[in-house]
Amino acid sequence: MSDTRKPGLSRRGLFGATAGGAALLGGLGGSRLALLAGAAGVTAATAADAAATGAEVPPGQLDDYYGFWSSGQTGELRIFGVPSMREMMRVPVFNRCSATGWGLTNESLKILTQDQTPENKAFLAKRGLKAFQNGDLHHPHMSFTDGTYDGRYLFMNDKANTRVARIRCDIMKPDKIIDIPNAHDIHGLRPQKYPRTGYVFCNGEHEAPLVNDGKILDDPKQYVTIFTAVDGDTMKVAWQVIVDGNLDNVDADYQGKYAISSCYNSEMGMNIPEMTASETDWAVVFNIKRIEEGVKAGDYKEMNGVPVLDGRHGSKYTRYIPVPNSPHGVNTAPDGKYVVVNGKLSPTCTVLDLSKIDEMFEKDLDPRYAVVAEPELGLGPLHTAFDGKGNAFTTLFLDSQVVKWDIDKAIRAFAGEKVDPIIAKIDVEYQPGHNHTSMGETKEADGKWLISLNKFSKDRFINVGPLKPENDQLIAISDGKFEIVHDGPTFAEPHDCIMVRRDIVNPLSVYKRDDPMWEDARKMAEADGVKLEDGADQPIRDGNKVRVYMWSSAPTFSLEKFTVKEGDEVTVTITNVDDVDDLTHGFTISNYGVAMEIGPQATASVTFTADRPGVHWFYCQWFCHALHMEMRGRMFVEPKAI
Amino acid sequence: MSDTRKPGLSRRGLFGATAGGAALLGGLGGSRLALLAGAAGVTAATAADAAATGAEVPPGQLDDYYGFWSSGQTGELRIFGVPSMREMMRVPVFNRCSATGWGLTNESLKILTQDQTPENKAFLAKRGLKAFQNGDLHHPHMSFTDGTYDGRYLFMNDKANTRVARIRCDIMKPDKIIDIPNAHDIHGLRPQKYPRTGYVFCNGEHEAPLVNDGKILDDPKQYVTIFTAVDGDTMKVAWQVIVDGNLDNVDADYQGKYAISSCYNSEMGMNIPEMTASETDWAVVFNIKRIEEGVKAGDYKEMNGVPVLDGRHGSKYTRYIPVPNSPHGVNTAPDGKYVVVNGKLSPTCTVLDLSKIDEMFEKDLDPRYAVVAEPELGLGPLHTAFDGKGNAFTTLFLDSQVVKWDIDKAIRAFAGEKVDPIIAKIDVEYQPGHNHTSMGETKEADGKWLISLNKFSKDRFINVGPLKPENDQLIAISDGKFEIVHDGPTFAEPHDCIMVRRDIVNPLSVYKRDDPMWEDARKMAEADGVKLEDGADQPIRDGNKVRVYMWSSAPTFSLEKFTVKEGDEVTVTITNVDDVDDLTHGFTISNYGVAMEIGPQATASVTFTADRPGVHWFYCQWFCHALHMEMRGRMFVEPKAI
After folding, report:
1. Among residues B247, B228, B244, B223, which one has the least CA distance to residue B311?
2. d(CA B621, CA A73)
3. What pLDDT score does A52 carry?
4. If we measure between CA atoms, which residue out of A607, A606, A608 comes closest to residue A596?
5. Residue (of A583, A578, A575) closest to A536 by Cα position
6. What is the pLDDT of residue A55?
């Protein structure tokens, strides 16, 4: 099946780099039919029998893949089962979670605050806050060993407040959340694939003065963009590189040599006409070895404790490969040979041959020397996924389609051969952004499932009001299939996802008592002569600080009541001594804004001021037992005035 | 099929009201097989072909029912599609939402704060907060007219911080969140069914001193429990009634005469042995007409602006009907004749004949005069749902089963006839709490679908770590079926749900410009001489208060940049002038903790202090356009020191 675009249709005609041209795109929100009027699209059938494609997971059966979904501005990670597309778990990361107490408990606040910049700490303190309460989590990726997922960690960005987080896959909770200094608004993020992670590469998307203290304001010439490598083991920033252009997405190679970022707005424009003025922007290639040598040689400026190298045009650390206007996604093929840079405002994808990059750094070559293909695929190509069998799948945002194409044929066509790389197109509903194939960003890509994360759902679901869900569509791609088998509504905004084979992920079901998460609580208890799992019969008073130690075992807390004084700073520490799978307890103090999760064998604590006198019930809010409602007790707050 | 319990097995033997007896229940977390060892259970087949039962909703097809799910301690409402069991939308209510800015925007803060008690306002202010950031949302129920859903509102409780919320079904956002004074920890909630809602009945679960200022602490004899009727139109508390015993769940009749609450812990015990000591507790019946007359006659004490009547034993306003130990769910059958009170610690359900309640209030009758059946159903009956065809479905928490039984046969058996009311039992996975049938709490119960909301999922899904999802199972019940067709993992904790026919719910897709939600923003703009949809070219300064008005239209904000001074109190008000379905914009200010949703034709605003000098990008975080990433601008904060 051939490309549906009319040959000769001018890209500039559709995407003229003027405000007027941009305004033409305003119709995107409209129906696809209106958008595509005149495009003689021939598409693959979308009707599908889910059962026939093996997408159904009957009651009691397990999914084959873990799906790790971002949530965009919701700030959490989501765990899906694939192919059932059921959301299995939410993992609060950058957001404040009412259920688990993430952002309230001492254990979560430690993770949220211990790697904050002093500037952020001060900024938040002025608001009476310890941590930001929002995040914009776009790109969740697993740690690699030898080119494939190793089940250790998940890494993810926060564009809203310039942070990077790590989740431990043994317990599926974050253990590190770090502020990235110097950079602004981390967007694209990918881990080093080889030999292992290693580095986590993070794109600072937005440009700003290098020292952003207000002395430079409306002077874009003095703005810079920062690329960051985080050490995935220590979660410290290893080094940063100043680059030209806004960094968008990033991927790594399979040799541990390079990271490649897409850069839009090479113009350093401050509005859409300026940002889209140039016909070309670029992909920037980072030479990891040279950068490490530069750091060793002291070829950097230290800023906020981080070595910052200059990687702007002319630097030995980078190469800028011109690609058509405003590239977006960057995706390394599982064979390790090619990187696909997706055109966004160009109907093309640019294929880079990674084997040519060494030479580009060593010799003074044509900057497009590594470009080996540039197929025209359709309108608005944003991201590409792979089946490990030589095929690529690219989302076409404007066409609301996914195009399947043959990488080898695209290369041959670029070399002049009369061959059409496009295999098929499929309609998706509507306007796809990221896509992903099962294991598709590893050398073990298995070509079974493709997800298209669509930004609009419009009429695909029962109407739930002005705010509609996104629509994550599951597409069967094994054995030559190319069929949508599931429409999946999701809350804002599953920006990106990965699909990991089940055998790679092996979490615990019950916490280990010596987990580092409650190390501080353990030390505090030891200092008080208390064993966490035994609790204490009475609150321990230390001036106006009061420490309450309890255990929980369905359906009781170890204390039926405890007494504090108005104005006391109270720390309640609870250890769930139940060691049964799925037996999570909760601890809520009514009308005190206190609620937290305590997993089996876990310890959790919360500190608050007892500034409301009276009788206040605490209760277990995680259903645990037939006598769950009876699992409660009283906190007495003696008033000052009596 | 008969009850699986061994005849003659003593309830006291299983549920001895001693600490030791309670401890026996600790094994609930274990596998059902272990629990049920020795119980010769014969169950209906659970294997099911989902496709054959019509539970599949293929891509592009719409669900037949709206499912409104609570989220327990997560604090939000969830909208599901049934039978696909896909989560369509999250509606933040009591929680702080990173994506929508609920709890941050001026519009949401108005709803969250305008009906706070002065005591709560002061308590929160001490913490630097305007609203609580957590909630425990158990029971979502729709407004009724003439015994069935009318599609106007959804009402729901917050047990954690004693609140009640209302959601407008036209836009699916809360418009009222009120603190309930005098009461503690609102649990059960149901709307008046007839003639309309009318009242929303709210159970204060926990007992406390009537004036809880700390003068009375460890003196349970002076504790009381409060039943509240909220006016569902004005969202003001109409009246409250003091009762004996802890209020658990509640339901209303189909005549507008009575509300019936279950009361556990009639003992007013303060720990499990005390709470479960008595063989019987009670259902308390509230006589609405008498209470209204009492209010008119001034037979109340006014407390915090609310008339509080005394409905304790001996009152004319209430009747206390003894039922076996620790009743839990209360469910009125769709025929309007019967109410089922579920036994929890008794293996029985108690059926009350509503037609006998009038007499009970008028004459001095046996307090169990209205009891017409008390079938033994199995272990741990918690909630009952109905198919509108005379059958009832009761969750058995301990047995991990749902039992289908015949109400009429139960009544005949109670009268002495040798007839077994139990029709069938089905295993559910695991430990079910609430259940619900399609339209089952209305006179239009249609007997198509049953949901069992199970508290544990254990091994039913891929392992996602120590915190496991709940498991909402969909059961086909039409045409005599009784089959599980879908296992649905859900994040903490879908405590309760309702399923509403699709034709009843008709939300808008685009906001009306004159929506009251942004009335304050409109007034502020008018005072500034600005039209919201036109924005203002420059910030409007008023001392150190600065107001910025922008419109958004994909892919631009009307301002490319604006300037404020360090320390200014800045209010940014954005009006989304796009009027296309699903074209929501967002507004995030990087590194400022600011992010909010602006639906099509909506206005949203946020107020913050500009205490971080420098260049700060604002951007649209709700994917809107091919040039979405270019939809951004700069806030310049001029430093004080320059």
Report:
1. B244
2. 7
3. 53
4. A606
5. A575
6. 80
- The residue assigned the tokens 């259902």 is B283
Amino acid at B485: V
- Residues A88, B462: C-beta atoms closer than 8 Å: yes
Q: For residue B104, give the chain A residue with the closest CA.
A: A133
**Three-class DSSP category at B112:** helix
CA distance readout (Å), B534 to A464, B510, B512, B537, B549: 28, 19, 16, 9, 8
Render B150-174 in DSSP notation, one character per residue. Answer: EEEEEEEEETTTTEEEEEETTTTEE
The DSSP 8-state label assigned to residue B478 in this structure reads G
A35-61, pLDDT tens digit by residue?
333 333 333 333 334 445 678 899 999
Q: Report the alpha-carbon distance of residue A263 to residue B453 in Å, rounded.
A: 48
Residue A20 has pLDDT above 70, yes or no: no
Residue B24 has a CB neighbour count (10 Å cut-off) of: 14
DSSP 8-state symbol, B593:
T
Cβ neighbours for A542, distance < 8 A, ≥ 6 positions apart:
none
Tell me how far apart the alpha carbons of residues A144 and A190 are, in angstroms, rounded to a whole number: 10
Chain B: give the shortest CA distance to residue A418, in Å: 31
Peptide bond into B264 cis (omega under 30): no
CA atoms within a 13 Å half-sphere pointing along the CA-CB vector of B275: 27
The whole-angstrom separation of Cα B594 and Cα B584 is: 17
* Tens-place pLDDT, residues A599-619: 999 999 999 999 999 999 999
In 3D, which of B447, B342, B473 has the Cα closest to residue B386? Answer: B447
**B214 within 8 A of A639, measured Cβ to Cβ:** yes
The answer to whether the CB atoms of B66 and A502 lie below 8 A apart is no
CA pair distance A276, A267, nearest whole angstrom? 8
Q: Which of B136, B275, B581 lies closest to A621 in CB terms?
A: B136
Report chain A residues whose CB lies below 8 A from the CB of B63.
461-462
The angle that helices A519-527 and A106-113 make with each other, rounded to 10 degrees, is 120
Q: Which residue out of B226, B577, B623 would a mutagenesis test of the A interface target, given it has the greatest number of A Cβ atoms within 10 Å?
A: B623
* H or E stretch covering A485: strand A483-490
pLDDT, tens only, B45-56: 333 344 456 788
CA distance A51 to A485: 9
**How high is the pLDDT of residue A11?**
30
Q: Cα B467–A82–A383 angle (5° rounding)?
A: 115
For the stretch A555-589, pLDDT in tens is 999 999 999 999 999 999 999 999 999 999 999 99
Residue B219, Cβ density class (10 Å: 0-12 exposed, 13-18 middle, ≥19 buried) = exposed
Residue with tokens 């009222």: B176
- Percent helix, strand and coil across chain A, each to the nearest 5: 15, 40, 45
| A554:B26 CB<8 A | yes
What ipTM did this prediction achieve? 0.93
| pLDDT average, residue stretch A206-213 | 96
Other beta carbons within 10 angstroms of residue B215's beta carbon come to 15
Contacts of A320 (CB under 8 A, 6+ apart): A244, A263, A282, A283, A284, A285, A313, A367
Strands (DSSP E) along A140-222, which ranges? Answer: 141-145, 148-158, 163-168, 173-179, 186-191, 199-204, 208-209
Amino acid occupying residue A103: G
**Residue in the block written with tokens 């026939």:** A52
> How far is residue A3's CA from residue B333's CA, in Å, rounded to a whole number?
60
B527-544: b (≥16 Cβ within 10 Å) or e: eeebebeebbeebbeeee
Prior bond of A416 cis (ω within 30°) = no
In sequence order, which residues have a C-beta less than 8 Å from that of residue B495 and are 6 or more positions away? A623, B70, B71, B72, B137, B138, B139, B433, B434, B453
